[in-house]
Amino acid sequence: EVRTKGYHGKVQKRARVFSNDPNHPEVTIGLKGMVWLPVRVSPRSVHLRGVEDEEIEKVVHLLRGEKEEPLIVKLDSVSIPDKVEVKLDETEKGRTYQLKVKNKVKGKATYSGILKLSTNYPERPEILIQITGNIRARQERP
The whole model's pTM is what? Predict the structure, then answer.
């Protein structure tokens, strides 16, 4: 079994197999393949870090993978709407999207939640993006 989560494109894996065969007690086997993604998400999670009263925003890019069918992405839900503002824009019709996640909290805070997107691809009907926030208090100068 080869786990391909986190991989894209050409993949090459090797494994050593040990046996009780006296002529071949150890054999190395190899596997080469192509990992195909219907939708590429980069980065796969959002970490909002900064100081209170600063504008803290991160951008996630969604790109149609090797499918020819146009990609349609919709924002389904945000588990922490009181903490973050989320905006989804199609940047290239049927091909790329940009997701902006912005901190809404005024003051010091730590939070985490899930952003749920849906697509028209049966191979990847749902995209979940973890959101974490770590907003520090502003340091007073002496």
Answer: 0.78
